[in-house]
Amino acid sequence: MKVHFSRLDEASGYCGKCLKQVPVGRPGIRHGPHLILTLLTGFWAIFWIRDARRPRPWQCLECGAEVYKIMSDPFAKGEQR
Ligand SMILES: [Zn+2]
User: Which UniProt keywords apply (predicted)?
Assistant: First the structure.
């Protein structure tokens, strides 16, 4: 079994290049190293939060283009303001 993209957020969106609805993905946040650094230094939590809040572009899994229109974002729930 291949383990590539083991940390990948997945959703579906509309790709402007493929001109259809495609599966999209973006690299997930690796919390492990952040947790260790936070435990070691204490103040690293600032960088952790900053990294977690950084906007990560979605990519079309078929052509690799950036996708801005997300149809179903499972991570959007609970993030509404
Ligand atoms: Zn595409």
Answer: Membrane, Transmembrane, Transmembrane helix
